């Protein structure tokens, strides 16, 4: 059997997904036995021209991580889609915008002003903003266009499979690689290497009647390591987040932040969590309910931490 041709690329992301791939440790040798890496810029010296030279469909599987923040990301996404038989949205950023997607709460000009004018680490007395073209004696320099909003991978190309996580766990990655190598691919559109149930359903912490009188941030209380974190007043996203991470955060006494996204059928994880919180707030009056809810720090950033571009809100108007 001929070896698979595997590609990996990052767009707007932190690089954690590339590290997660390497975190399969010695099993990377097993990957090399079944697949040839034909594009992985962070690890091997490939150029865009190399991919452009491939025949359409030459790549068997592309693991694309990162959101689409600029024209370069969109160009490479479309190029890799054309050259790949299977396109996998790998990680939260590719699936729904991830942490970079929080920029959609701001306007493009606001971001530029903050970074290139207000930032204390920037020396820019002439207040010059990035330009897509700039003439120098050697020719015209070209930079990617910074889009007005962050997009998910499926906003710009057709995606075959989705692998959630920030980043996906190494065990999950290895399991999916084995499935790919076997050729036993699931139906198109499937979320792979995870479960279609909430993290709450797999959490082993003791759950009773969820009634919350006050919300805290993790540093404000000493938590009971056995009791449901939401019942202790921590904004755990477990009730609205897909399982499959191995409960790593809650096992470390930290509330789930929602990086695996919602289960099938939920179109807006943030709205679903607002509904979940409304059911646990223990208030005797509207004023008390307002007080309890007001204790939640940065609710927009919490509810849409990984999925603003893929939500019903998408971006600030």
TrEMBL record:
Domain NADH:ubiquinone oxidoreductase-like 20kDa subunit stretches: 14-178
Keyword Oxidoreductase: yes
InterPro entries from the UniProt entry: Hydrogenase_assoc-protein, NADH_UbQ_OxRdtase-like_20kDa, NiFe_Hase_small_N_sf
Keywords in alphabetical order: Oxidoreductase, Ubiquinone
GO MF, one annotated term: oxidoreductase activity
Cited PANTHER family: COENZYME F420-REDUCING HYDROGENASE, GAMMA SUBUNIT (PTHR42845), F420-NON-REDUCING HYDROGENASE VHU SUBUNIT G (PTHR42845:SF2)
Identification of the protein by name: NADH ubiquinone oxidoreductase, 20 kDa subunit
Source organism: Desulforudis audaxviator (strain MP104C)
């Amino acid at each position: 059997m001929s070896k698979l041709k595997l590609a990996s690329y990052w767009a707007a992301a932190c690089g954690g997904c590339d590290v997660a791939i390497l975190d399969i440790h010695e099993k990377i040798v097993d990957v090399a036995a079944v697949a040839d890496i034909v594009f992985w810029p962070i690890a091997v010296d490939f150029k865009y021209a190399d991919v452009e030279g491939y025949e359409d469909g030459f790549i068997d599987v592309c693991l694309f991580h990162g959101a689409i923040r600029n024209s370069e990301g969109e160009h490479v996404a479309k190029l890799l889609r054309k050259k790949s038989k299977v396109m996998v949205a790998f990680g939260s950023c590719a699936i729904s915008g991830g942490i970079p997607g929080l920029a959609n709460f701001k306007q493009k000009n606001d971001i530029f002003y903050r970074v290139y004018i207000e930032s204390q680490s920037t020396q820019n007395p002439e207040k010059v903003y990035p330009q897509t073209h700039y003439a120098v004696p050697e020719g015209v320099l070209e930079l990617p266009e910074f889009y007005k909003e962050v997009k998910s991978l499926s906003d710009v190309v057709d995606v075959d499979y989705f692998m959630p996580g920030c980043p996906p766990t190494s065990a999950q990655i290895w399991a999916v690689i084995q499935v790919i190598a076997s050729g036993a691919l699931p139906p198109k559109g499937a979320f792979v290497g995870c479960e279609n149930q909430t993290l709450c359903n797999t959490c082993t912490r003791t759950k009773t009647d969820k009634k919350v009188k006050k919300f805290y941030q993790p540093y404000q209380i000493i938590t009971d390591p056995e009791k449901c974190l939401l019942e202790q007043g921590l904004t755990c996203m477990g009730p609205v987040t897909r399982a499959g991470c191995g409960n790593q955060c809650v096992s470390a006494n930290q509330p789930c932040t929602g990086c695996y996204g919602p289960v099938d059928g939920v179109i807006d994880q943030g709205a679903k969590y607002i509904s979940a919180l409304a059911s646990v707030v223990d208030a005797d009056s509207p004023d008390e309910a307002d007080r309890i809810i007001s204790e939640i720090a940065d609710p927009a950033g919490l509810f849409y931490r990984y999925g603003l571009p893929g939500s019903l809100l998408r971006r600030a108007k």
